[in-house]
Design a protein that fits this description.
- The chain has about 120 residues and is of the alpha+beta class.
- It has a single domain, classed as Nuclear Transport Factor 2, Chain: A (Roll).
- Helix content is about 30%, strand content about 35%.
- The chain contains two helices and seven strands.
- Strands 3, 4, 5, 6 and 7 form a five-stranded antiparallel sheet that branches.
- A hairpin with a 4-residue loop joins strand 4 and strand 5.
- The longest helix is centred in the last third of the chain and has 22 residues.
- The protein starts with a strand and ends with a helix.
Length: about 120
């Protein structure tokens, strides 16, 4: 997390300095990265469409909990990974999938746009 701090000099002009802050908080990680990725592949990717695949998660926090943020990538035969079209969060303690229908719709729309632009470039 980056923060800005202010320091006053002799002529009372504010100077800003970038700093990095690290916080520690207790958390129970009952779900592994691999389990989170597998959950997203099983419950989200299969519902949203062919060509979508979950990739390696990153452990992070939302405002309330520790989550695995699992990138969802559009990958097509003979073309490979075309790009990330979204992500799904998995609660690292409970294993709850934290994605709503609006998020899912955005992923579908991004995948369609990416596929269309890739198809046009290939022609």
């Amino acid at each position: 997390m980056q923060s800005r701090c202010a320091r006053w000099n002799n002529d009372d002009r504010r100077q800003q300095h970038a700093t990095t802050m690290t916080f520690q908080a207790p958390a129970s990680l009952n779900i592994s990265a691999e389990e989170a990725r597998r959950l997203v592949n099983q419950q989200v990717v299969t519902e949203l469409g062919t060509g979508l695949i979950a990739r390696d998660p990153e452990l992070t926090t939302d405002r309330e909990r520790v989550v695995w943020r699992v990138p969802i990538v559009l990958s097509l035969p003979n073309l490979g990974d075309l790009g990330q079209v979204g992500a799904a969060d998995v609660d690292a303690e409970s294993g709850d999938l934290l994605i709503n229908t609006d998020d899912q719709e955005r992923i579908i729309q991004r995948a369609r746009r990416l596929c269309a632009s890739t198809t046009l470039q290939a022609e």
